[in-house]
Amino acid sequence: MPDENTSLKDLRELVAAFVAEREWERFHTPKNLAMSIAIEAAELMELFQWRGGEEPLGDAERREVQYELADVVIYCLAMANAVGIDLADAVREKIGLNARKYPADRYRGRYRIGG
Q1: Tell me: the pLDDT tens digits for 26-47?
Q2: Does 91 lie in the same domain as 57?
Q3: Are 34 and 46 contained in the same domain?
Q4: How many independent structural domains does the chain possess?
Q5: What is the band of 115 on the pLDDT scale with cuts at 50, 70, 90?
Q6: Cα angle at 53 between 58 and 73, to 5 degrees?
Q7: Helix 59-83 with 30-46: angle, nearest 10 deg
C-alpha cells in the first residue's frame, strides 16, 4: 500500500480496526495518546542523538527510523480518531496559518528575520 495509493481515511480505518480488535478504545484517551506521541517522537529523536548532521542512514538505521516514524503517525491517527479531527482539513488549515506567519518572500532560505 504505497503512499500514492493510500488515503488518510484508509490509514485511520486501519488504525481503528487494529485498536477495536484488541478492545483498546478505553485506553485511547487524548492524554494517553498525546503522551504516546511524545514518547514515540522521543524514540525517533534518540536514533539521531549522537549522529553528525549529514551522515547518511544505513539500511538497518533507515528501518529503525521507518518504524519509529510509523509509530508516531499511528498514534497521531489514533488521536485524530479519538477526538474526531479531520487531519486533511487540519493540515491544510495549519499550512495556511503558517504561510501567513512565515511568508515565503520574507523567510525563503532562513528560519527567522535578521538571522
Answers
A1: 999 999 999 999 999 999 999 9
A2: no
A3: yes
A4: 2
A5: low
A6: 65
A7: 170
pLDDT tens per residue, range 62-95: 999 999 999 999 999 999 999 999 999 999 999 9
Rounded Cα–Cα distance for residues 18 and 78 (Å): 10
CA distances from 43 to 13, 28, 47, 80, 106 (A): 25, 20, 7, 21, 34
Q: Mark whether 25 and 68 lie in a shared domain.
A: yes
Domain that holds residue 95: 86-115
Residue entry with cell 497521531: 76
Reduced to 3 states (helix: H, G, I; strand: E, B; else coil), residue 111 is coil
Q: From CA 30, how far away is CA 83, in angstroms rounded? A: 7
Residue 9 is placed in which grid cell? Answer: 481515511
| Shared domain check, 91 and 80 | no
Whether 76 contacts 37, CB under 8 Å: yes
